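Q: I have 148 residues here and want to know how they pack in 3D. Can you give me a structure?
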Amino acid sequence: MAGTEKSLKARAVDLLSRREYSRLELKRRLAPFADSEAEIDALLDELAAKHWQSDSRFAEQFASSRGHKYGSRRLAQEMRERGIDRDTIQSALAQQDDLATARAVWQRKFGRPPADQQERLKQMRFLASRGFGMDIIQRVLRGEPDDE
């Protein structure tokens, strides 16, 4: 290695100093610079032991930063793609209020009930693409109150 080349650990710390990364994301980012997969795994284990990298902290941050825009289904899918396990995802999404989020997103985008079936389908597709379940979508479009 050249003297000016950054060490693998320096690259990892540099990335983590900017934002949280899941273990899988960090592994993918460091792979081009590592001599072996074992080298990356050892470094990631060290970073996790020092609490510099944490999947649960990543999941909490991810849910709070994107939770005002997307439903639990979409957030969970995106976290699974980033290598977060099911229990960590459930824990991170425990405080997510999909109904309130869906209402707020719907209000910003449309602001009024659908005038016809075509508009209703458009609004339903929009909310579904944001990761809200059909039960939540129907409650939003019917204008149901929070307490049933």
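Q: Anything worth noting?
A: Residues 8-53 form a domain with the Arc Repressor Mutant, subunit A fold (CATH 1.10.10). The longest helix spans residues 37-49.
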